[in-house]
Amino acid sequence: MKTGLPARRLEIEITETALVRDFDRALSTLRQIKALGIRIAMDDFGTGYSSLSNLRAFPFNKIKIDGSFIKSVNSNEQAATIVRAVLGLGRGLGLPVLAEGVETDAELRFLQDELCDQVQGYLLGRPAAIESFRDLTHGDVVSDQSDDLVSRVKSA
Predict the structure, then answer these.
(1) Cα separation of 153 and 149, whole Å?
(2) How is 40-77 classified by DSSP, letter by letter?
């Protein structure tokens, strides 16, 4: 199927659970996908079969740290330490880290203070009908919600 989408604009997410079923096949397949120019993110890092050897063996372009760690960064020092460690690991490996499940300004501030590369979650945008994205992709109309988000990220 041809879509016209440049491969570099596509990013797939894969969990470590999917890798352990058939390591060799998964490695071969992900290398082929990456050779096409498609980006690969390790999703839900820190849960399941989290293994540092998988970060080294597989051709990931990004680490996505599971939202369960983000939810407790302000109340649980162990969670905060784990998030800091994953961020440092990403920097050391040259991989950007995306924090999933950001829901509060305090979580966003923590991640900014720790120099997290990317964030996603309800604080930044809730799920919406596809029609609501038309203005974002086909026009120059910017919604008030986007303006509010930009000012909140800048001031946090």
Answers:
(1) 6
(2) EEEEEETSTT--HHHHHHS--SEEEE-HHHHTTTTT-H
